[in-house]
Amino acid sequence: MAELPDVSGVDAGDPEQYFGVVPRGKYPVQILSSERKATNSGNGELIVLELEIIDGEYKNRKLWDRLNLWNENQTTVDIAQRTLAQICAAVNMAGVRDSAQLHYKAMVALVAVRAPRTDPVNGKNYGEQNEIKGYMPIGSASARAPAPAKPAAQGAVSVPTAASNAPWRRKAG
Question: Domains plus CATH for the chain?
């Protein structure tokens, strides 16, 4: 048993703000962790990326991406390799050999919302899910375009511009 502080005067907040999907749009993110795992089908391995939104209305929300880099299906591998190349380009890092090198580097994720579905293989039902459609550098012209899902007056995500004084924009030395 542990003694707890009195939280009777603390605003518990809205639990809905931490669950469910974030609206379709462009969000500044960083990779928090990466893990190599076997695919559910057993025909390959993938890298699971845990991302965090680093600014705006959805700051600190988590997103996940899966890069199926080792698979019997070459098309699947090609898609994963293109995604990895986008991430490397977005954080300006060529020749990355360890996924940990990509951790805590700011970039923009293009986020979509996948409709609820039933998996044809296992019959499981899945609700709405976020899906990462691509990555781009912070400050690129396309990254600064407004998020299509939310007008600015309703709290669109602010993405730092090239002129910002953010740490990832400052030049060393």
Answer: 19-141 (2.40.50)
